[in-house]
Write a structure and sequence with these properties.
By secondary structure, the chain is mostly helical. The chain is built from five helices and no strands.
Amino acid sequence: MNMDNLDAGAMVPVWLTAVSWVFVGLTLMCAVAILYDVYGRGYRQRTSVMSMVWPITALYLGPLALPAYYRWGRPQREKLQKEHGVVPEKSLPTDVAPHRP
């Protein structure tokens, strides 16, 4: 079979292209939601690099990044703790991970 004459677009099923575009749209919406929470609502991270790590994580994890962000990224912020008056319980991975005082 001569691969030079094949159209690359003909090899990809239409349903896979549609699923890919839906996933790209979901990942962008998740990244925008996290960016809005960090910059729009003022829930800044302790370190500035983490303010960009969570939206970038959403670009490849998609909808799975939102629960991770709300569980591990958001509860560690001072603004949330001041609003609710209680420090949220940490899970095992975040409790054993090294962090600055």
